[in-house]
Amino acid sequence: MGRLTGKVALITGGARGIGAAFAKEFVKEGAKVVITDVLTDEGEKIANDLGNPCVFFAHDVTSENEWNEIVKKTEETFGPVSVLVNNAGIVIQEPTESLSAENYEKVYKVNQFGVFLGMKSVLPSMKKAANGSIINISSISGLVGQAMSLAYNATKFAVRGMTKSAAVELGPEGIRVNSIHPGIIKTPMTAAEELQPVINELAKGIPLGRTAMPEELSGLCVFLASDESSYCTGSEFVADGGMTAG
Prior knowledge:
This protein has about 250 residues and is an alpha/beta fold. The protein is about 45% helix and about 15% strand. The chain has helices at about 15-30, 40-50, 65-75, 100-130, 150-170, 195-205, 215-225; strands at about 10, 30-35, 55-60, 85, 130-135, 175-180, 235-240. A seven-stranded parallel beta sheet has the order 3-2-1-4-5-6-7, sandwiched between helices. Helix 1 crosses helix 7 (about 215-225). GO terms for molecular function: oxidoreductase activity, acting on the CH-OH group of donors, NAD or NADP as acceptor. Belongs to the short-chain dehydrogenases/reductases (SDR) family. Keywords: Oxidoreductase.
């Protein structure tokens, strides 16, 4: 308890799944938390359940204006941002031959462009806080390729590279940037019916013999948000049950 006392955290995609699990653990560890999402009803419910240390704001991560407004609201509510978790993401599974430019751009705008806007928008606030931790949620799809996932793979590899570039640039400012690479996590996104054939096939190769719950990533995210990881930057932290070990 208290590992994040004094931290002000902004978590995108916080209305459900991994983002909601992060928000719950962050509050438990003493952080003041802003969660954002396009899922307004679910986001407001999470914030209400967590109580006073947590607020929800509707937020489209593909909009620079909305990013600037969210950072402003966070500062007005809790003070300068010291932790950013770029968690919002979408997946579209399609063969490359039939993948439309529209769908490719949709995945890119949320998964990659949204991460860029988040890092860019939060930096002035983090500099006020005199330190910061940016945690970009990539995927094992940012480490290895999968069929039917060209757009998703492209964005998650990009997040990995963006993380390293930002870490090198922002280190002298006292701002750390790391990426988390989850394997198959049981979330509403991975529960989509059209994804089940791919997920079931991938799950057969997990050395731990099972998929994971969102809460199993929360401790890792708390570690990266806390001062315990003060010498960690520019690194990939993999939580995949051993999928990419072989």
